[in-house]
Amino acid sequence: MIKKISLIIGIIIAFFAIIFFHGGLYPVIIKLTQIEATDISECKMITLGKKPCGGPWDYLIYSTKTTNETILVSLVSIYNLLDGVANKISLKISTCDIEPAPEIILQDNQCKDGRMFIKPLDSSQ
């Protein structure tokens, strides 16, 4: 009986530790992600999170010039792993649609998501 109670307490502690650590990583990742660049080759993208049905929750665009890529990739890998575990523990559900990856552009020396900008109509047609 004591072993079962200890196991249940351990599971509860692990659950809250995963949820707390997982939630605490997100603002660190966002703060670490910088977008200032001088060339489009410095712009990259990484998937963030794991939907229960598959695919990422979001895409982060960052600059290799101003972001420590090694730390960012490591933290995002941990976040994604914990996100998958948190989904299973909390029985989270999501839509099964997969958002297409953004088109990365360089605008005003910043790496940006090209989907956020409306392209002007070609007046020659």
Can you tell me about this structure?
This protein is α+β, with helices and mostly antiparallel strands. The chain has one domain (2-116). Helices cover 42% and strands 16% of the residues. It has helices at residues 2-32, 69-90, and strands at residues 43-48, 58-63, 104-107, 110-113. A two-stranded antiparallel sheet has the order 1-2. The protein has a two-stranded antiparallel sheet with strand order 3-4. The longest helix has 31 residues, at 2-32.
List the SSEs and their pairings:
Layout: H1 2-32, E1 43-48, E2 58-63, H2 69-90, E3 104-107, E4 110-113
Antiparallel strand pairs: 1-2, 3-4
Please outline what is shown here.
The protein is an alpha+beta fold and 125 residues long. It has helices at residues 2-32, 69-90, and strands at residues 43-48, 58-63, 104-107, 110-113. The chain has one domain.
The run of helices and strands is: HEEHEE
Strand order, main sheet: write it out. Answer: 1-2
Euclidean distance between termini CA atoms: 78 Å
Structural classification = alpha+beta
Share of residues in helices = 40-55%
The number of helical runs is 2
Return residue spans where pLDDT drops below 50 for at least 5 consecutive residues. Answer: none
Q: What is the overall shape?
A: elongated
The percent range for strand residues is 15-25%
Count all strands and give the number. Answer: 4
Q: Averaging pLDDT over every residue, what do you get?
A: 83
The biggest beta sheet reads: 2 strands, antiparallel
The radius of gyration is 19 Å
List the domain count as a whole number. 1
